[in-house]
Input
Amino acid sequence: MIKSLTPIALATLLATTAPLAAQEANDAAGGAAESSADQMLDLGQPVDDGTPKIGDRYLKEEYGDWDLACIKTETDADPCSLLQILTDPNGNPMAEVSLFRIEQQGGQAVAGATVIVPLETLLPTALTISVDGAPGKRYNYSFCNQLGCVAQIGFTQGDIDAFKKGTEAIVSLRPAPAPDQLIEMKLSLSGFTAGYDVVDVVSQ
Output
């Protein structure tokens, strides 16, 4: 609980700050010209040189239609993932796929991805991904936040092999306001193999 200042404590504080206030009054006359000059003159602003700051996501390399996107950290080992922004038929950004490899420890998943789709997505129908017209797989959503609804999914070696051999995947969802409509977004697989071979391996 935050305690408020008692009258005695406040009086003590005022007594200790009184000499400081007097000194500031004496300095005011000498500093008046300087402050007025500062108000009239433009002192300039540091120019942003585009260098990523801690926590910024930046593009490191491009592999076809995939970006190797990294997060700037305090160390030289910035974590990176394969990133692709999916658009609607009008070219507007609609979803984001961020993919990484997984260190093998006996599990089936050799890679994982975070897929972010718009809010008001119909969650029970799940997210569907299919490659070159083959039967797709459905993935449940994990949670929603202010950025959108997130599916945290795993890929088997068979899934990754299909991505490497394929040309295009289709990511499908249904909007909650219009559940009878199916939204299909193209996920290009151009450059996937080269990008996958260099993306970070994440320990489980």
